[in-house]
Specification:
The structure is a single chain. By secondary structure, the chain is an alpha+beta fold. It has 2 domains: 125 residues, P-loop containing nucleotide triphosphate hydrolases (Rossmann fold, 3-Layer(aba) Sandwich); 117 residues, CobW-like, C-terminal domain (Hypothetical Protein Yjia, Chain: A,domain 2, 2-Layer Sandwich). It is 24% helix and 20% strand. It is built from 8 helices and 10 strands. The strands form 3 sheets. Strands 6-10-7-8-9 form a 5-stranded antiparallel beta sheet, sandwiched between helices. A 3-stranded parallel beta sheet has the order 1-4-5, with helices on one face. Strands 2-3 form a two-stranded antiparallel ribbon.
Amino acid sequence: MAIESLMERRGTFDYILLETTGLADPGNIAPLFWVDDGLGSSIYLDGIVTLVDAKNILRLLDEPAPEETTHAGHEDHSGPALTMAHLQISHADVIILNKSDLVPPEELEQVRQRVTSINGAAKIHVTDHSRTPQIEGVVLDLHAYDHLSSLDFREKGHAHIDPKISTIAITHPAISAEKIPQVDAWLRSVLWENVLPPSPSTGESDDAPPHPTDFEIHRLKGILALDDGSFKVIQAVREVFEIRDSENRRDAPDHCKIVLIGRGLGASITPWERSFRSFLEQAG
């Protein structure tokens, strides 16, 4: 690919900013930086930035033109068809909410809530005329895959404002290092097979939240706190994921947290937390 050719000219580039078309699916591009041996050995994926048009985004999400709707890779899902706007927002590490000067404050807040309901793990920067407060840390030098400071959730999950894609966050007490293979197996089931491992019956009432059976994960970020005081980071773009040591040795979390962004996740976080907990307990 073109980037591999560029990397043959070592020492020439400090940073590569890859701008896709307005209808591109970032989920098809990002995994290349993990699975391509040539790219993985020479550069790293710094982060995904999505530019959102505050004036038109609600229309793009709710009333897309035919060319703005995608079925690629999602033919088996029974839910509503996704728009490219949904896909681009769901994969983002940073969202630039532009043209804020063209909408009244109450509409801007509605847009922000809608974007957050789709991707609650992304940092949002509100701008007008595409003027960002700074380049470093906003568009460049994100290190979105090195640390997960954006996982500072004050509550579990988010209101399901958008019917197509939502964000949920599950928590769990710190685990032992021996449980990491079980976490890996749970992730393979969720990401590769689109199957949430069932948890044993707990004698719950009939109105208990249903077990999600028809879902797909677009992004997954997580922190695995270990009982020895260290922690690991989980990153996933669709079915490609990795669990690795954190480069940040300070501010170790005291509990695990996994954030999932995708379609068909359900209205309750309970089945996800129960599945994760019981899977680790059964495996142990």
